[in-house]
Amino acid sequence: MYKTNVENQVLNNSILLMTNILKQNGDSFINPFPIVINPFGFAFNTEEELAEWRKTYKIPETASAEEAFYLFRDKYEIQSNDPDEILQILAIRYAITTQGYSTTKSIKIANSISAESAVQLQEQGQELTGVSVMQEPIRKYHTGNLASHIIGYVQTIRKENIEEFEAKGDEHQYQNTDKVGQTGIEKVFEEYLRGERRYKTDRYVS
User: What's the pTM?
Assistant: First the structure.
């Protein structure tokens, strides 16, 4: 999903339609929102993490998980009263808030979706504001786990990876959805294996 200049309700409707399509086809989508429902509860490992989160998002210390849930609903101007629908929208809106996106930098909503979801998302593109279905290359190791300690593996970029690249003076512009080598050959030869970033733009002719 890329950023577009639309009102909250248009964005929320787009997110709900998109997540409903994914759910109907058995596909999952990212959900970093730290409140669960049925029953309501906070998804933090420690009280310190919860306290810091409350401070960051200005959630009253006395607010329950349910109260905090509806505070976020109001913050994002979500009109639905169905907790499941609200959570679907909150999952993506919260990811956008915490990860950021722009007109050129997307935020990944789901991985390895089914062909059914891909087709339906493309068919309803006019109603899905800023949503694109993209193919991306993946590593395929033909020998399975053989010599995995030498070959290594790739994983979505982490904060420590970025710090390491910056220390080396690496000018390559990584995005938070990129996969980079973490160990072995994948890590040592990252600068050769990663390829070059390219952008696709749509041109409309009237």
Answer: 0.71
Q: What 8-state DSSP symbol labels residue 127?
A: G
Domains assigned to the chain: 8-127 (no CATH), 136-206 (3.90.1310.10)
pLDDT at 206: 43
Provide mean pLDDT across the span 189-205: 68
Shortest CA distance to 183 belongs to which of 150, 139, 137? 150
**Is residue 130 within 8 Å of residue 104, measured between CB atoms?**
no
What is the bridge-based pairing of β-strands 154-156 and 41-42?
unpaired
94-99 — which CB contacts under 8 Å span 24+ positions?
A: 94/32, 94/33, 95/30, 95/31, 95/32, 95/33, 96/1, 98/32, 99/176
Segment 90-120, tens digit of pLDDT: 999 999 999 888 888 888 999 889 999 999 9
